[in-house]
Design a protein that fits this description.
This is Ribonuclease T2. Pfam families: Ribonuclease_T2. It is found in: Lysosome lumen. It comes from Apteryx mantelli (North Island brown kiwi). Keywords: Disulfide bond, Signal. The protein is α+β, with helices and mostly antiparallel strands. Helix content is 35%, strand content 15%. It contains eight helices and eight strands.
Length: 255
């Protein structure tokens, strides 16, 4: 190969390497990209209901709403090479263990739940600059959770876990009045012999500017979200306004 041709060949290979290398770590998505998303769901789940749904033997679930995840709509597993690394969130671990625990496996492999959430949802949320690292993604989710302060809101509205049944419309009105938006509320349908649905998950929607907005999913819910809601013996779905709603204070063991 002549020197001039060799020079251009090397230059071309170098340019290609730069191009490929720059897109492997961080990526920008156009509106037509299949992983493009429009809004985020901050999902809170009620640990007692999570335990009711699961075949696992939950031990002493938290008695407060915890984080299930921060999920972009219309996108999953956007970068399968961007693996979870717990050392990147070492400064957040105390809050993570308290507010974002693995309810089903509290004494086992504590980071597996976070690994799942990052690789399935975080890698998609990371197309937003404010969420473009593992520390930013988990840190911002914790910040939004504390800003929403769902536990305090429900208590102030007189909605407490126990044996009392609530009307779903009353729960919705309390949340909408407090936050100024309509969240998405999901329940476990009544089992055989039961008359009430069991509240399980409350999701707040955010724009890409991380501003609250109404959640307007259809009754069946987003297909992108459903896989996260199948935990074992049951599946959550959008709550029925006509059914009484149970807000359990403890796990009911089936004999």
């Amino acid at each position: 190969m002549k020197p001039a041709k060799l020079h251009y060949w090397i230059l071309g290979c170098f340019s290609m390497a730069l191009c490929c290398g720059s897109t492997s770590d961080k990526f920008l998505l156009s509106d037509s990209h299949p992983h493009t998303w429009e809004k985020l769901y901050l999902a809170h789940h009620w640990p007692v209901t999570v335990c009711k749904m699961s075949a696992n033997d939950c031990q002493d679930p938290p008695e407060y709403w915890t984080i299930h995840g921060l999920w972009p709509n219309k996108a999953e597993e956007c970068n399968r090479t961007w693996h979870f690394n717990v050392t990147e969130i070492k400064d957040l671990l105390s809050d993570m263990r308290h507010y974002w625990p693995d309810v089903l496996h509290s004494s086992l492999n504590r980071t597996q739940f976070w690994k799942h959430e990052w690789e399935k949802h975080g890698t998609c949320a990371a197309t937003l600059q404010i969420l473009n690292s593992q520390k930013k993604y988990f840190g911002k989710a914790l910040e939004l959770y504390q800003h929403i302060d769902l536990n305090s809101c429900l208590l102030k509205a007189g909605i407490k876990p126990g044996s009392t049944y609530y009307q779903m419309t009353a729960i919705k009105e309390a949340l909408s009045s407090f936050y100024g938006v309509t969240p998405k509320i999901q329940c476990l349908p009544p089992e055989e012999g039961e008359k009430a649905q069991t509240i399980g998950q409350i999701e707040f929607c955010f724009t890409k500017k991380l501003e609250l907005k109404n959640c307007t999913e259809s009754k069946g819910g987003s297909k992108w979200m459903q896989a996260d809601l199948q935990l074992g013996t049951g599946e959550l779905s959008v709550c029925d306004d006509t059914l009484p709603t149970y807000y359990p204070s403890q796990v009911q063991r089936h004999k």
